[in-house]
Amino acid sequence: MVFHVVGDTGGVQDGEFQNNVAEQMIEHLTSGKGGTPQFCYHVGDVVYFTGMRDDYYPQFYEPYAHYDIPIFSIPGNHDGEVDDPSVQTSLDGWVDYFMQGHPDVDPISKDAPRVQLNLPNVFWTMITPLATIIGMYTNVPEGGSVDSIQQQWVTNEFATAPTDRALILALHHPIYSFDAYHSGSSKMADILENAIRDTGRVPNLVLSGHVHDYQRIEQTIASDGPTPFLVTGNGGYHNLHAVHSKPGEVAPDTGAVLKYAADKKWGFLTLTIDKDGISGVTTEVDRQGIPTQGDTFRYPSDPIMLAQPKSVPTL
């Protein structure tokens, strides 16, 4: 299974960088090099700044007009923000595209028609033959916010996920980040820690966005090997966030290790999952639109269970 991962794409002030990334995603799709992607998983902030429905044409429909595979998503904080409650409801633009009971082509897509999706909720789980992807909605506040209902849901999804395939957790606000602007979220770390403690299940991979760069971070949770935490927030928003550490450095408060970072280029991630592992390669795109290969990695895809769930380390 091959798919793209991208986040924080909305080209609200300057669509050039979003368009450059979209062009390379389309190029990969049509070339088929390294396997043809079957879908894209967007980790939030589809449009800026307040997720309004009218912003979907310039920031979503038009840039991906020739990207003819499904784009699935979880919402980001900007998708849920509201300036004027008399004009819009939180997430109304996101819901109008991604959660239609009877999907068709929205007239707002104009000359870039894309059939809407019928996702069941703003947080939802994708079950595939090779991996289960649990997608959270971490709301608007800085650091994220998840109520008890979603915490219980996440824990249940961990507990009931198939035990013969990989488990991936996706959320907009990152648990770890070595950037100099947002940083990681201890609130989101608590959500994951509680789910692992209650079920014993450890994700094979954690995907996030929010921070406008790319980072691959490792944290040791199980004895099987480190768990990768990926920040993929360099999908097109014009302003990138600087990383304050070099690969190999360890966060003094969490023990997380930065393995790779790209904070001066935009781009996207391609994940390939088979029965033996999860492989990733990033495509980095500079200001002139020139692509280069970035990070590469491979981690096991075997399900990870803790023999003693209560011993999960503090994340």
Quote the distance from N terminus to C terminus: 30 Å
Strand percentage lies at: 25-35%
Helix tally?
6
Mean pLDDT: 96
Low-confidence stretches: none
Q: Name the overall outline.
A: globular
Q: Which structural class matches the secondary elements?
A: alpha/beta
- Compute the gyration radius: what is it? 18 Å
One letter per element, helices H and strands E, the order comes to: EHEHEHHEEHEHEEEEEEEEE
Q: Could you give the order of strands across the largest sheet?
A: 4-5-6-8-10-9-11
Give the number of DSSP strands: 15
Largest pleated sheet: 7 strands, mixed
Helix content: 10-25%
Polypeptide structure, described:
This protein is 19% helix and 27% strand. The protein is α/β, with parallel strands linked by helices and 315 residues long. The chain is globular and about 55 Å long. It has helices at 16-31, 56-61, 77-80, 92-98, 148-160, 186-199; strands at 2-6, 39-42, 71-73, 124-127, 131-135, 166-170, 201-202, 205-208, 214-222, 225-232, 257-262, 266-273, 277-285, 291-300, 304-305. It starts with a strand and ends in a 10-residue tail after the last strand. The longest helix has 16 residues, at 16-31. The strands form three sheets. It has a seven-stranded mixed β-sheet with strand order 4-5-6-8-10-9-11, covered by helices on one side. It has six helices and 15 strands.
